[in-house]
């Protein structure tokens, strides 16, 4: 199966004083951990940003990774997702956020394995909350669904997902088999959270990488 990865980095980082995806964690840009996790699983990695300044900054920080700018001026995950789906070359696309440094390669691989024959594979918590930014989408189907959602002047990922016909939800309880503490969904939204993890985790822990799976 031909797959791509799209990492959304076009947010305004309103709760950060600097570009969140480029903030250093364990001495490396936050987004680098996401790239490392997904790169062995896909044929291409795309980083989607909002501004020219962001494109230049991420381009300098991520050698050999393609950086593309949003197709619309509005900043929201759905617009970033549409940009990624439009550009992605893979039949399926892993959609990810730039602020999840503990994203599990094992979880991503499992989602990709479940993708053939459906429009999306999305983790879902017992309370019904879903994780649309750590999910797999059939690229062209999702592109059409995102376009349809935006034409309706809706801007949420959930609204886009409602326009998909075949969605396979994966319980986070089942995902604990490969990620017992579900760290894969941990995102760092504020400078306080960022400092907390920088202090409480050694750089040695950050540098440990899981063994790659075959594509």
SSE order and pairing:
Elements: E1 3-8, E2 24-25, E3 28-29, H1 30-38, E4 44-49, H2 52-61, E5 66-69, H3 77-87, E6 92-97, H4 105-113, E7 120-124, E8 134-138, H5 139-151, H6 157-161, E9 167-171, H7 172-175, H8 191-200, H9 203-207
Parallel strand pairs: 1-4, 1-6, 4-5, 7-9
Antiparallel strand pairs: 2-3, 6-8, 7-8
Helix pairs in contact: 3-5
Summarize the structure.
With about 220 residues, the protein is an alpha/beta fold. Helix content is about 35%, strand content about 20%.
Description:
35% of the residues lie in helices and 19% in strands. The protein has nine helices and nine strands. The chain has helices spanning 30-38, 52-61, 77-87, 105-113, 139-151, 157-161, 172-175, 191-200, 203-207, and strands at residues 3-8, 24-25, 28-29, 44-49, 66-69, 92-97, 120-124, 134-138, 167-171. The strands form two sheets. It has a seven-stranded mixed sheet, sandwiched between helices. The protein has a two-stranded antiparallel ribbon with strand order 2-3. A hairpin with a 2-residue loop joins β2 and β3 (28-29). α3 (77-87) packs across α5 (139-151). The longest helix has 13 residues, at 139-151. It is globular and about 40 Å long. Mean pLDDT is 88; it is low at 199-215.
